[in-house]
Write a structure and sequence with these properties.
This protein has about 600 residues and is α+β, with helices and mostly antiparallel strands. It folds into 2 domains: about 375 residues, no CATH class; about 70 residues. Helices cover about 50% and strands about 10% of the residues. It contains 19 helices and 17 strands. It has a 5-stranded antiparallel sheet, with no helix packed on it. A 4-stranded antiparallel sheet has the order 9-12-16-15, with no helix packed on it. The protein is globular and about 90 Å long.
Length: about 600
């Protein structure tokens, strides 16, 4: 029997590993090429962070997009800094590091779902089935291929669910802390949709268990996870909250699909980027496609219907069904999504079909739990059955990864033009450079950015702000490109006599030399204003959308520097949380020593 278990374990590892490799293998082709679609703008976020680090400063500010915008305070900004992939971004060319992040995330989400399924079934074949239906399905491949890099970090969700389940079932609060740490990692890595979705899944699961067992213990463990996530992510979370309080991102989201459309999303093998099997309302297919095949659909339905024996199964199935219901969108004013969309942070989201991916993840594990109960006595009588079941799992995996591999073969196909060396930074109103394949990305940002040019009317950050009660784009005022009327330089005397010029520059700071400017003159820096800008240690003020300061008597230099004003509070909360976790760990260790 131990040999059979070892064979099943090895077989499952072989199947999962082999098909993860098959899925991402096309990424190893044409390593000099860059990604298309949103890999252009998401590449900028990563390039900007690494470039800031090479200037010897933390990536607080991104001067290259939209006239300048917070890097650390943007949910998708600087996501490769507090990340397991930072060493690769520091050591490798950008386009290769992005491939490593894709491949690493594929392996991570596969391991996470396998680990989560192990909490509910002994069957290695069923765990592997959950990996392919719930993790490495067509939805994952479509989103990763088009450059929605935030989708890669659904990889943290199964680890968070696993840790919370262990915390509740084994009464180990330390695992609830791990669940919170997984959510915090999700925030740091820019998982703008996966983080709220994972938090919602944890909440639904804990509340369902609390209701079924008539116990508050699951809610207590959920609270520990939430507090840990809040405290450990505070340095970035506070900066994001500050940015969004000034630059809101309200989203109208009336999208919906019916049962027939949902079945087509899940079962049709026609999953190319430009597929349009029904009216998509102007939204591209990668926001709908989630291929799992007819077998995968049956697995998801089985998870919803058959997982009813234990409280944990019921809670898991209920969580998956609730997420899937949200995926149908705003089909009625009282539909789940219509109601949830009024609640932050979901009010800043759209395209509710994005809930389909976490729903498939949870429902596939619920199916593994239900099917595992049925299989357990049969495997006990015929131990090799679990090994044999890996064959149909491998056939399904071959089908799913075939579609994903075809998509990845198309992803990195753009050629970067020759870039100027040691170019002096300046703002441009419009992009100054394009990929060699000029029609591939209509609003290409990365070539201009990598030539060290800011890009005021850019793609990739679409912030807005309130002016007289009206939302207007952030670039409606602020920095002015050198190719636009009214440009006066990267630094200038905005009011009064004299001259100003930048003599030292890095992404988050500029030293400005002033000549012949009398006291009281206003010197401005050509970057979008943010309250965190400081000049010689004093808060800057806004001058027509850019940071500015008044000249003091005899002053010949000014230093403009950006650092999030929430940083001190965020670090303090982080330190308190980390200290509390350390104190708890020390206390637990002493208790265990005393028992032994």
């Amino acid at each position: 029997m131990p040999r059979v278990v070892a064979a099943a374990r090895a077989g499952a590892a072989l199947v999962v590993g082999a098909f993860v490799l098959r899925l991402v293998a096309p990424l190893a082709q044409r390593l000099d090429r860059f990604g298309f679609h949103d890999w252009d703008s998401h590449g900028v976020y990563r390039w900007a962070a690494v470039t800031s680090l090479r200037y010897g400063e933390f990536p607080w500010w991104n001067p290259w997009q939209c006239g300048g915008f917070p890097a650390w305070g943007f949910a998708e900004g600087a996501t490769n800094v507090v990340s397991p992939y930072l060493p690769f971004y520091l050591a490798l060319p950008l386009q290769i590091a992005e491939r490593v992040e894709i491949a690493g995330s594929a392996l991570a989400v596969a391991c996470g779902v396998y680990l989560l399924a192990s909490r509910f079934t002994d069957s290695r074949a069923l765990r592997a089935l959950a990996v392919f239906v719930g993790a490495l399905n067509g939805r994952w491949s479509l989103q990763a291929a088009v450059g929605h890099s935030w989708h890669l970090h659904y990889a943290w969700m199964p680890f968070a669910l696993w840790a919370l389940d262990v915390a509740i079932e084994e009464r180990r609060p330390s695992r609830a802390i791990l669940a919170g740490a997984a959510l915090a990692a999700s925030i740091y890595t820019g998982a703008v949709y996966p983080t709220p979705h994972a938090a919602l899944a944890l909440t639904l699961y804990a509340l369902a268990l609390a209701a079924l067992r008539r116990s508050t213990y699951p809610i207590g463990q959920l609270a520990i996870a939430a507090a840990s996530a809040f405290g450990l992510s505070a340095p970035k979370l506070f900066a994001i909250a500050d940015t969004m309080s000034r630059v809101p991102r309200p989203m109208n989201s009336q999208e919906s699909v019916g049962p027939a459309e949902m079945f087509r999303m899940l079962a049709s093998r026609d999953q190319w980027f430009y597929t349009r099997p029904f009216d998509l309302g102007g939204i591209p297919w990668h926001e709908y496609g989630a291929y799992v095949g007819v077998i995968g659909v049956a697995v998801a339905l089985g998870g919803a219907v058959l997982a009813h024996r234990t409280h944990r199964e019921i809670a898991l199935a209920a969580t998956g069904v609730a997420l899937l219901a949200l995926g149908f969108g705003a089909f009625h004013p009282l539909a789940p999504w219509s109601l949830l969309h009024h609640v932050p942070p979901f009010s800043s989201q759209h395209v509710p079909t994005r809930f389909v991916y976490p729903a498939l993840m949870v429902l596939s594990v619920a199916f593994a739990a239900a099917a595992g109960r049925w299989l357990r006595p049969r495997i006990a009588r015929a131990p090799m059955l679990d090994v044999a079941l890996l064959v149909p799992v491998a056939i399904l995996a071959f089908d799913l990864t075939s579609i994903g591999a075809d998509l990845f073969a198309h992803t990195f196909r753009l050629t970067m033009p020759p870039l100027p060396e040691h170019a002096e930074f300046r703002q441009s109103q419009h992009g100054t450079m394009q990929y060699v394949e000029a029609d591939a990305v209509p609003h290409a940002t990365l070539p201009t950015t990598m030539s060290n040019q800011g890009y005021v009317e850019c793609y990739g950050i679409h912030p807005s702000k309130m002016e007289n009660g009206v939302l207007v784009p952030i670039h409606a005022s602020g920095a002015i490109g050198a190719d636009a009327p009214g440009y006066r330089g990267e630094a200038y005397v905005a009011e009064g006599a004299g001259r100003a010029r930048v003599v030292a520059w890095s992404p988050s700071h500029a030293e400005i030399e002033i000549a012949d400017a009398p006291a009281g003159s206003i010197v401005a820096y050509n970057a979008t204003f943010d309250p965190s800008w400081r000049v010689d240690g004093v808060p800057a003020f806004e001058w027509h959308g850019v940071p500015a300061a008044r000249v003091r008597e005899g002053q010949t230099r000014m230093e403009f520097r950006y650092r999030p004003r929430t940083l001190g509070a965020g670090l303090a909360v982080f330190a308190i949380c980390a200290s509390a976790i350390a104190a708890y760990a020390i206390k637990r260790r002493r208790e265990e020593k005393a028992k032994s």
